[in-house]
User: What shape does this take?
Amino acid sequence: MASSHSSSAVPRPGGGGRDGIYHKERDPSPPRFRSIRSLPDVCPKEPTGEGRGLCDGPSVVAEHDRWTVYSSKVNLPAALNDPRLAKRESDFFTKTWGLDFAETEVMPSFYLPNITREHFGPYLQETAQRERIHERCKTICPNKEDVDAVSSITTNHEKSRAELEQVPKIFMKPDFALEDPATFNTVLPWSHFNSAGGKSSRDVASSKLLQEKVEISNAGSEELSHYLDVVEVSIARQISLRSEAFFHAMSSQHELQDRLQETQRAVAVLRGRTADIDRVMCQGPLKGLRTALTRNNCVKLHNKLKLMAAVHQTQPTVQLLLSTSEFVGALELISTTKEVLQQELQGIHSFRHLGSQLCELEKLIDKMMVEDFSMYARSDLNRCLRDEPQVLEKERLESLVFGLLRQRKLDFLEIYSDEMILAAKAIVTQCVAESVLHIEEIDTEVVTKLADQMRVMTFPQWFELLKNVFESFLLFLQRIKVTLTVIKNVVLEVLASNQKTRLLEEAAAGSSGPEDSPCSSLLQGEAELAYLTHEGLFISDALNEAQQQQTAAVQDQSSRTSSAANHDSASGSSEGSVGREQSFMSGENMMPSELELNRVINNLQELLYTASDVSHDRCVKVLTARAKDGSLERLSSAEFVCLSQAVEGFVRDTEELCGRRSVSLRGALQSQANRFVHRFHEERKTKLSLLLDNERWKQAEVPAEFQDLVNSIADGKITLPERKIPGPDDRKPTEFLLVNGQKYAVVGTVLLLIRIFLEYCQCVNDIPSIATDMLTRLSDLLKHFNSRSCQLVLGAGALQVVGLKTITTKNLALASRCLQLVVHYIPVIRAHFETKLQPKQFSVLRHFDHITKDYNDHIAEISAKLVAIMDSLFEKVLSKYEVKAPMPSACFRNVCKQMAKMHEAIYELLPEEQTQMLFLRINASFKMHLKRQLARLGVVNDGGPQHGLVVVDVAFYTENVQALKSLERLDLNMAEIWEQKR
Assistant: This one.
């Protein structure tokens, strides 16, 4: 085994050592591969004490006891040849040097290249062919020496085998033992002696027996000696065959002992140098390190004592902070102290009860904050609405909100909502009390209820109260909005602080490299212990300063974090806001999540909506209390319009202020408006019915105010002008109403009807919400006028109602002209209502189409009635017509007279075109009756005497008709009256 290693660890002066580093000597001869043989155990000699042995060398293993190779209980070969090599090796090397000794990987040498199989590739390619040829030749022609050696070994082996076969097999058995009687009798032939003893007598045989024993004993001894010689000769022959290997092993053993001695000397030198290095370079620095460690421990102890002193002052400091309403600082101080107790001061006996005391104090602060916020909300909402700042103690409110958020008391808005509802009720009570105080007619001792007091007031007094309530609620909503804005800003500040903290954590977690080590050190160590180095400051202040250093360090690493930090610093410009923000950053685990904060922001907006709804509901109470006895239904149009405008103005202002469209007040107003419209319509319908029942259907004069009213409609403005007090310079009434250049002869009822439907349009202008209801009522009014006028004129109802003697053609023409005037204004009314309706409500406009059709049918019926009157006259007069002198006949004279009366009656009432159309129909009726009478009389167009007389009468009729105004160009072709001659 020793010959297989041709290198030595002994330093050689010429062996190529470089810079004090000894390298192994390389053997230039090619390596010889031999089978591995185990070495015999060699026990080292005991130390003689001469010179400086290994025992005197420096120790690099232990500090107290020096260890040498002789301290081992077993020798090195025995330890290395242990069958439990893995476990023993681990126990042997890790017992003193630690568990990491056997597991430590040895770093590869930087001076030796990494040799792989590819480096031998070219060599293997060159020698591959030669190796194949060599192996083939060795197989074909074996070596002579090998053949001789094999033959010699074979001959010796056979000779030795033949000799060994002479030895009995019993000596080769593994269980051979002479103490066994069977084995002993087999080896020594005592049988011959036993048989011989049986044949001789006792006396004679005794001498022979002794002699045979000696002979047999000598023979056995010689035989055994022979067998021993055979075995020894065989062993000697085997030793002679392996003598070379044996002597080689012995020489290797001596060489190994020499090398071990050299190794011992090298190790002694190394230990000496290591001892020097330990003394010069290790003991001094280690002492310095121990001193520095001791100093650090003293500093930590001193800081721990300072921390204990600061924690001891926690309760007095919390009391001081609570006296100034610094809830956030007190809670942060408690949280920081609890964290310090759990981490830095855990297990200190003197502070064993402080944690529970701080928890109780924190619960007490929670109750104090809730009660303080409730008191703040009550005092803020119930104070005077005028001549006071909108926000009461802004710093106190911010501190309370910060503290409530810090403790996750997110239901504080419910407290504010309850106080807000109570304050809204108190506003109405206060306004009513102030109004009643200035009204002497109301005795508050007799009329105690607010609703009764409001009903006792006159409308101007109540309306003034309502406006005062509206104004108070607007101021109330403005105050609530400003307060909620302050709370929202606080929540946004906390939300931005949480986002900033999250960005800082992400930046700190994502940063790596040597440039990040100061920041990470600050995050892990200095931020936790920064408060220990501040004397005279509270723990929260020290943490704030440490957190600011942390923020500055992280801002240098991430631009995104820097932008977030700049935004937050801009949002919180005041020192108090910055301090609170840093406090929240240090206590981020206690803060609500971003989702919860966003929910609080939404609840703030909902609370503002609730305030708007509550204000509207209280105003609805005021409105319904007044309307309980129906007083609002009896208001005049102007008064109700004023009420509607006031309500709409308040609703509009609250919508702009709160951004919420409340429907309760509008719904109450709509309900009152529906009742008002019903009463409004019933009054006007009743008034119109009375006017129609008293109408004598005579042409009425048109006052100047009605003409101005019509002129304003012609300008596109459907408004109801104020009535003027008559004066001396007023214009005189006219006979006709001029509408777009046309004259309308009207009765007084129609003039009032125009004013009435203008009042409907004016109500729609003032109260747009009642447009559909008002349109329905107006269409009902127009239908009522049409049907009632038809009953009175065409149905001759005016004879009994008014006492007219007869319904004249002038009455009919006047009624027709009035209907035409209403039909003229129906499209104007329709267009006005169309501007007030929503597109989905345009379907109700179809009422005007039905009304227009009904009016046109009525006008056609009146025209037909006028024609029917003349038709009955023609039938009556022409039935007595006789063709005889004198000419013109009395019958034709009477017809012409009646035609002139008809023309005189309707000429100034109806337009010229309508008059011409009417007389065309009358003329056609006359020709029909004349033709029928001439046929009855037998007069034909034969040029006879009767024909001549009829021609004279017809010429007289034509001349008289064409002499009437606007009938000069009337075509009166009378040729159709003659029967054709058969």
Residues 243-312 form the longest helix (70 residues). The longest strand covers residues 737-739. The beta strands are 737-739, 742-744. Residues 269 and 616 are 104 Å apart (CA to CA).
